[in-house]
Every structure is written in C-alpha cells, then in structure tokens.
Amino acid sequence: MNRLGHIGLALLILSPLLAKFDLNSILIAVALTISPDIDLVLRLEHRKYTHNITFASLVAIGVFMFSRNFWLAFLVLLSILAHIIADLLTLQKFAPLYPFSKKKYALKLFKSNNTAINTAVLLLGIASFAYFSNLDFSAFLRDLTKLI
Ligand SMILES: [Zn+2]
C-alpha cells in the first residue's frame, strides 16, 4: 500500500475510536502509521526491520516513554499493525514476526501501488473521519469556496 492508502486505512480503523479518545491522539496515531516506511528513507532493506511486530512494539513503547500516555501508545501500536497487515495483502513477501521468525508471507492480492485500491481506502478513511469526528466540515467547505 502507498502512503496515502496507509493513512486512509488508519483513518478508517481509528476514526470510530474518536468517541473514546481525543482527536490529537487519533491524529498522532494516524501520522505514525507511515513510520514503518522509514526504511525507504534510511535505505534499509525494505520491509525487513520496520515491518514487524517488534518495530510496532518499540515505536509504541517509545511513544509511551515520551508521552506517559498508555492509550496513545496503544493507538500507535494499532496504527502500525494496520500498516503491516495492509502490506501483507500486497505482492512483496516479508517477515511480520521478525526477528522471532524469519518466515515470509504475502497474500499477493494486489500491488502496493494499486491506484484504485489506495484511492478507495483513502476516501473511505476520509469518510470515516468525517462521520465520526465532530468537526464542522460545512464551515470548512464554505471557507474553501471563498478561496476559489
Ligand atoms: Zn510499508
């Protein structure tokens, strides 16, 4: 899945939790859903060190140590696990249990850069966020039309 697809999936999964958690925590967790793809920036072997439950747990522990907020760390863990599960649906095999197991998996349902799937998931995520958040989107759209 590409970056926007991952953000859409995190919005889709985490937005219903807005009834329970504050907006900032949800948005921080959504932003950190793309953290596993830091391997591309750091030029590490793609999906080896950062696409597994160990990385997800370490980031969540880091968030907890920084924020002292257990639930924020839990949301970040969920968000990164969603990234890993979404990438498991694509073609490239990787080991989600690394370093405990080096067995690689891929469900090969679609290419990670599939435009239709990434766009659909992003739109569903935005719709989920619009539905579950109490933000006034009508005011936002009014302001937007003034700019055009
Ligand atoms: Zn990824």
Describe this structure in words.
The chain has seven helices and no strands. The chain has one domain. The chain is mostly helical and about 150 residues long. Zinc ion (ZN) binds next to helix 5.
H-E string: HHHHHHH
The total domain count is 1
Q: Helices and strands: which structural class?
A: mainly alpha
Helical segment tally?
7
Q: Which word captures the global form? A: globular
Strand content range? under 5%
Helix content: 55-70%
Cofactors and ligands: zinc ion
Keywords:
mainly alpha, 148 residues, binds zinc ion
In short:
This protein has 148 residues and is mostly helical. It has one domain (3-147).
Strand and helix layout:
Layout: H1 3-14, H2 23-32, H3 38-41, H4 53-67, H5 70-88, H6 115-132, H7 137-147
The site of zinc ion has 5 residues, from α5.
